[in-house]
Amino acid sequence: MLTHLSRHVFYPLWDLKDRSRRLEEWKNLERQQWWPRQELEALQWQRVQEMVRYAARHSPYYRGLFREHGIKPDRIRSLDDFRAIPVTTKQSIRNNLDRFISDEFAKDELVTAKTGGSTGVSLHLYFDEACQERRNAAQLLADRWSGWDLGVKKAAVWGNPPVPKTPKQKLRHHLLDRTVYLDTMDLNDSSMGAFVKLWRRQKPEAIFGHAHSIYIFARYVDREGIRDLRPRGIVATSMMLLEHERALIESAFGCRVTNRYGCEEVGLIACECEQHNGMHLNLPHVLVECLDSDGRPAAPGQPGKLVLTDLNNQGMPLIRYRVEDVGVLSDRQCNCGRGLPILERLEGRVADFLKLPSGGQVAGISLVERTLTKVPGIEQMQLVQDTLDTLIINRVKGQDYDDQTDAALIAALREVFDESVTLSINDVEAIPQEASGKYRFSVCRV
Questions:
Q1: β-strand pairing of 267-272 with 279-281
Q2: Which end of the chain has fewer CB atoms at under 10 Å, N or C?
Q3: Burial of 231 by CB count in 10 Å (0-12 exposed, 13-18 middle, 19+ buried)?
Q4: Do 154 and 207 contact (CB within 8 A), yes or no?
């Protein structure tokens, strides 16, 4: 009953009270997802042109950038024209933050956020309220792809969970957000056991959280033989979802996992639909480019650095922003029938790619996944490269660990790193988390 009231009464009334257009945008997205790709791309391009013109008028940073490079927004009529705009980097934002903000907004009127800085550059960000509403609408759409619907109570496996304090926050938490939390900053048998009891009382119907943290909880559920936690949807986000993690999570909860990709800077970028075969790009809200090492568009199926243009945020426009992730775009059509194109996969952050003495590089996350799949007896693993000729392997022993495990681990890594690289294994109890509660399994400091 409360789920029905939350969706059909409390959410509409709350939006009416706040004069929000979130639900209206959600309904638009529900229709647009089934448009032919050509129509979606036409809508996206219209919004790209509008954002470029807006930034030229109202963002001091982009006004100066366009003037410096002779870019005339009214002459940008194709993606080739658009690519003449220089890429915006994290360092650009850090060094010119106030100049990015639109002169139509007072800074203290904008919604603020901050990225974690795990790649070395922490960013302060600002968003107008209309942007936040559209981002929330896109999340509602993606939630429904997973089987989790508006108003449904969820279990969030998340770091530093918010605690409602004011009467308004408490009312919203009870009527709308309807979330029970497992704090990833304190994941142990005791806290997870307590969360199982809370789950049985509260009966959430969906799980949302960091991919690896959900995996740790699923591993506990599987080990303890718990079979009565059966959500309708599972959304894994904030970290790369590895295939062996997906398999265990789905086995433990009897539910498919929906992989989602987004970032603090632009919100939802892509998400799996019910087909679970690649992630649909959030075309109406974000323009995603995939560029090779020369800054040209990577061919479909080839990895490249992802460059994003936010089509929502007028408060702090971001045009051709290099997010420091590597991904692979696809030209295939999903069987679901949606016109939204596909991000085939993520290959990790730029900072997660390990360097080879030969001059090449390897996707650290993919290497970790391959090794964990190939070598039994390892529960968790982290690769840390401080110099070109050293690699530290932080290894957590698994149930199948024996006196052959570490030798097999070294042999597996030797398939990638030759004898010029010293491989050192550290026996650790657990892989440390970042302040956000996320995990990094590949760290390159070279």
A1: antiparallel
A2: N
A3: buried
A4: yes
Q: What is the pTM of this model?
A: 0.84
The set of residues, in sequence order, having a beta carbon less than 8 Å from that of 232 and lying 6+ positions away, is 147, 148, 152, 205, 206, 255
Q: What is the 3-state secondary structure (H, E, C) of 202-228?
A: HCCCEEEEEHHHHHHHHHHHHHCCCCC
Cα 65 to Cα 106: distance, rounded to the nearest angstrom: 22
In angstroms, the CA 371 to CA 365 distance is: 10
Contact of 234 with 214, CB cutoff 8 Å: yes
Question: For residues 357 and 57, what is the distance between their CA atoms, to the nearest angstrom?
Answer: 48
Instruction: Give the tokens for residue 389.
Output: 């000729």
Name the 3-class secondary structure at 52: helix
The CA distance from 315 to 110, in Å, is 7
Reported as half-sphere exposure (CB side, CA atoms, 13 A), residue 25 has a value of 19
pLDDT tens, residue by residue, 323-367: 989 999 999 999 999 999 999 998 877 767 888 888 878 878 778
How does DSSP classify residue 352?
G
Q: Report the largest interatomic distance among the alpha carbons of the chain, rounded to a whole angstrom.
A: 67
**Which residue type sits at 136?**
N
List of residues 6+ apart from 172 with CB closer than 8 A = 14, 164
- What whole-number distance in Å separates Cα of residue 89 and Cα of residue 206? 36
pLDDT in tens, 26-80: 999 999 999 999 999 999 999 999 999 999 999 999 999 999 999 999 999 999 9
Instruction: Determine the 3-state secondary structure of 270 from DSSP.
Output: strand
Side-chain half-sphere CA neighbours of 12 within 13 A: 6
| String of DSSP letters for 55-98 | HHHH-HHHHHHHHHTT--GGG--SHHHHTTSPPB-HHHHHHSHH
Residues 103-150 have pLDDT tens digits of 999 999 999 987 765 555 568 899 999 999 999 999 999 999 999 887
Sign of CA dihedral 350, 351, 352, 353: positive
